[in-house]
């Protein structure tokens, strides 16, 4: 649905050329929620703004629904953009207009006939849960309500794609959750493709199907959110994951351990603790649990255990091998003495 190919965006500044996006190739499928995560300066905004050509790429192509937007200009581009809605961190509502007027503004701009505007605004307000705020001004709304107006406005012209630029970064955790649930609801009901950029991994964990990690303008890792949480490849991705899923065992506890410390992950419905007890019965090793949790990512369980395994090194190695054969992902964090 969205095909980004060899896309680069460079900026000319008085200090020289800055690469915002550096040779990115990505595909976002129809109807999925795709998250792009990275620290400040990674190139997320530049990339998302190239998707609707708010920024014109320096090179490369962006196809939405098979149409290469980089080939369009003027009216053609304006029409194509109507099929791509966008919401922003700071909402950008018009303060002198009521909630209904903010939404109808988008409909008018797209040439919607007057008699269709009222009913469509009502429909959109109901969708975002703001029917009772029709005639109030943005200043009278909370941050979460403002973003709901932003979402209604972005959906006004029935876009196929919704771009979310740090849409929850100005909101508190509870409001963030309610906006993310609304986005997921809209995605499922309308089959709209959502691309969101964020520096918060919990946002990705909450609603995204697939994700990419950006650093220095490049995509350094991409895949299913669940798979990336289970088996991250790069140090940066691991860092992002550790901000929402902790495998940390206090240093004082680790210092008391003289066995081999292993992190064990079980994907999906596999009952991790059952496999571990099978292992302990089958091999002459002792196991101490130091940390254990079942995380749910997109409603799929991911079992995470940190254990100390004690025994003869050869037996410990065999026990680890047994876990791997039972489809666990095992990482040795510290070898025993
Ligand atoms: N208009 C611009 N002019 C010059 N340099 C820019 C411009 N926009 C972005 N950059 C540079 O491009 C790089 C990527 O910036 P970008 O804003 O895309 O990153 P980001 O991941 O979205 O970060 P943030 O969350 O802080 O916006 C940075 O080095 C930034 O300084």
UniProtKB/TrEMBL annotation:
MF (Gene Ontology): ATP binding; ATP hydrolysis activity
Keyword Transport: yes
Key words, A-Z: Amino-acid transport, ATP-binding, Cell membrane, Membrane, Nucleotide-binding, Translocase, Transport
Entries under SMART domains matching the protein: AAA, NIL
Cross-referenced Gene3D superfamilies: 3.30.70.260, P-loop containing nucleotide triphosphate hydrolases
Pfam families per record: ABC_tran, NIL
Positions of the ABC transporter domain: 2-241
GO biological process, one term: amino acid transport
Domain of life assignment: Bacteria
InterPro entries listed in its UniProt record: AAA+_ATPase, ABC_transporter-like_ATP-bd, ABC_transporter-like_CS, ACT-like_dom_sf, MetN_ABC, MetN_ABC_transporter-like, NIL_domain, P-loop_NTPase
Gene Ontology, cellular component aspect: plasma membrane
Family: Belongs to the ABC transporter superfamily.
This protein's name: D-methionine transport system ATP-binding protein
Lineage: Bacteria, Bacillati, Bacillota, Bacilli, Bacillales
């Amino acid at each position: 649905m969205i095909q980004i190919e060899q896309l680069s965006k460079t900026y000319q500044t008085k200090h020289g050329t800055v690469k915002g996006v550096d040779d990115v190739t990505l595909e976002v499928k129809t109807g999925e929620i795709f998250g792009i995560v990275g620290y400040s300066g990674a190139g997320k905004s530049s990339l998302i703004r190239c998707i609707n050509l708010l920024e014109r790429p320096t090179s490369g192509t962006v196809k939405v629904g098979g149409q290469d937007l980089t080939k369009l200009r003027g009216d053609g581009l304006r029409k194509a953009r109507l099929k791509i809605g966008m919401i922003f961190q700071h909402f950008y509502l018009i303060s002198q207009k009521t909630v209904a007027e903010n939404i109808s503004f988008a409909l008018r701009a797209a040439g919607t006939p007057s008699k269709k505007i009222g009913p469509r605004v009502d429909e959109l307000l109901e969708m975002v849960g703001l029917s009772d705020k029709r005639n109030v001004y943005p200043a009278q709304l909370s941050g979460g309500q403002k973003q709901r107006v932003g979402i209604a406005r972005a959906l006004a012209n029935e876009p196929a794609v919704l771009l979310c630029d740090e849409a929850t970064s100005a909101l508190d955790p509870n409001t963030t959750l309610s906006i993310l649930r609304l986005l997921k609801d809209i995605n499922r009901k309308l089959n709209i493709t959502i691309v969101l950029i964020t520096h918060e991994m919990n946002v990705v964990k909450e609603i995204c199907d697939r994700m990419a990690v950006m650093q220095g303008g490049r995509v350094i890792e991409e895949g299913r959110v669940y798979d990336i949480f289970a088996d991250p490849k790069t140090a940066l991705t691991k860092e992002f994951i550790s901000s929402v899923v902790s495998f940390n065992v206090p240093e004082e506890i680790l210092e008391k351990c003289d066995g081999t410390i292993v992190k064990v992950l079980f994907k999906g419905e596999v009952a991790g603790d059952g496999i571990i007890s099978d292992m302990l019965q089958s091999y002459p090793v002792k196991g101490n649990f130091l940390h254990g949790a079942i995380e749910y990512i997109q409603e799929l369980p991911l079992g995470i255990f940190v254990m100390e395994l004690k025994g003869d090194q050869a037996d410990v190695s065999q026990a680890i091998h047994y876990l791997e054969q039972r489809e666990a992902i095992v990482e040795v964090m510290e070898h025993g003495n």
